[in-house]
């Protein structure tokens, strides 16, 4: 099945990435990285993009861009095609260079923007190329740690975030690391990567889950569970490991809890784990079955019983909402 393309209205912010075919190196010399970034600069000069953050590594790239006229595909064609042509010409080869069409996700809230920037900055550190993001010369963190950078890097938004977070009037490069450096949670990394795999927007606005009171979050969870019952869920909000660890900790802290759902009695934590894996982690029923080591039929039953309990058991619904909010705030703090 072809991958569904993202909506691209003018002004939309996207996290864009691609890698070499068969995971082969794309950029084997510094000159090739510079040539690729020159193509990015050409798209900026053509009025197609603003670049807010970037990182180019040996095998792949990440761009955080604002699509100015709703032409992200056209802009990325201007970036990737000349590079691929040069790559093939210098190696006397033919055929595709990138593994396929670029992947992208819409950055539609502040927490996701913050998570994507930290994710992009952390790439060269996780690849073992440098110890700190500001040491890598082919990433935007290198320039945000300095007073100026390439003219095609649109610094205004990121600098405004740093000024607001630090309570300063003028941008100080030293403050950038205080806002965006640090170890990113597994949940935040999984969220960024999951949105690239499953870019459909979640039925409830992500920021709403932070602003709303617990009873309202409960109502959102009920609607989301009903939408996800029997169909592909939306975009992930949490890493499955984050949910697993929290449920395991709760099991160890308290004696076994039984929940009556209709005429059946079920494990409270089994239902809640299945429901959060479905609604917050966007796992399929098959993935939930593998995660909980049960049959597909049992996993589907647990997901549906979770949805039923949300609608009929207020105590269960409120506790589920409180746990979801706690996990979200822990995984995605704002500066």
Task: Kindly describe this structure.
This protein has two domains: 12-184, Transposase IS200-like (Alpha-Beta Plaits); 197-331, no CATH class. Strand 5 and strand 6 (264-267) form a beta hairpin. The protein has 14 helices and six strands. By secondary structure, it is of the alpha+beta class. Strands 2-3-1-4 form a four-stranded antiparallel sheet, sandwiched between helices. The protein is 53% helix and 11% strand. Helix 13 (296-312) crosses helix 14. The chain is elongated, with a radius of gyration of 22 Å. The model has no long low-confidence stretch (mean pLDDT 85). The longest helix has 20 residues, at 72-91.
Task: Describe, in short, the structure shown.
The chain has 335 residues and is an alpha+beta fold. The chain has helices at 30-45, 72-91, 110-126, 140-144, 156-166, 173-180, 186-197, 206-211, 214-228, 240-253, 268-279, 285-292, 296-312, 314-331, and strands at residues 12-19, 49-56, 60-67, 103-106, 258-261, 264-267.
Characteristics of this structure?
single chain, 335 residues, alpha+beta, Alpha-Beta Plaits, 2 domains, four-stranded antiparallel sheet, two-stranded antiparallel ribbon, 6 strands, elongated
């Amino acid at each position: 099945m072809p991958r569904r393309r993202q909506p691209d209205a003018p002004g939309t912010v996207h996290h864009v990435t691609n890698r070499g075919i068969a995971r082969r190196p794309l950029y084997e010399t510094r000159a090739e990285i510079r040539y690729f970034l020159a193509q990015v600069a050409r798209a900026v000069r053509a009025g197609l993009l603003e670049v807010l953050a970037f990182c180019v590594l040996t095998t792949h790239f990440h761009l955080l861009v604002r699509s100015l006229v709703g032409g992200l595909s056209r802009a990325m064609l201007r970036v990737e095609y000349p590079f691929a042509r040069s790559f093939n010409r210098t190696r006397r080869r033919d055929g595709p260079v990138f593994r396929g069409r670029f992947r992208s996700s819409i950055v539609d809230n502040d927490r996701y923007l913050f998570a994507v920037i930290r994710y992009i900055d952390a790439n060269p550190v996780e690849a073992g190329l440098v110890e700190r993001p500001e040491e890598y010369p082919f990433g935007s963190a290198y320039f945000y740690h300095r007073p100026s950078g390439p003219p095609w890097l649109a610094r205004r938004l990121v600098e405004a975030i740093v000024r607001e977070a630090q309570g300063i009037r003028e941008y100080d490069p030293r403050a950038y690391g205080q806002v965006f450096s640090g170890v990113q949670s597994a949940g935040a990394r999984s969220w960024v990567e999951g949105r690239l795999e499953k870019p459909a927007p979640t039925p409830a606005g992500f920021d709403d889950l932070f602003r709303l009171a617990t009873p309202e979050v409960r109502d959102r969870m009920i609607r989301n569970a009903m939408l996800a019952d029997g169909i592909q869920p939306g975009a992930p909000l949490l890493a499955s490991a984050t949910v697993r660890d929290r449920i395991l900790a709760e099991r160890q802290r308290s004696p076994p809890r039984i929940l009556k759902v209709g005429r059946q009695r079920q494990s409270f934590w089994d239902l809640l784990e299945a429901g959060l894996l479905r609604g917050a982690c966007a796992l399929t029923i098959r993935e939930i079955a593998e995660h909980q080591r049960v049959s597909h039929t049992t996993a589907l039953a647990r997901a549906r019983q979770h949805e039923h309990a949300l609608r009929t058991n207020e105590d269960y619904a409120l506790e589920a909402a409180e746990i979801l909010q706690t996990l979200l705030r822990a995984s995605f703090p704002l500066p």
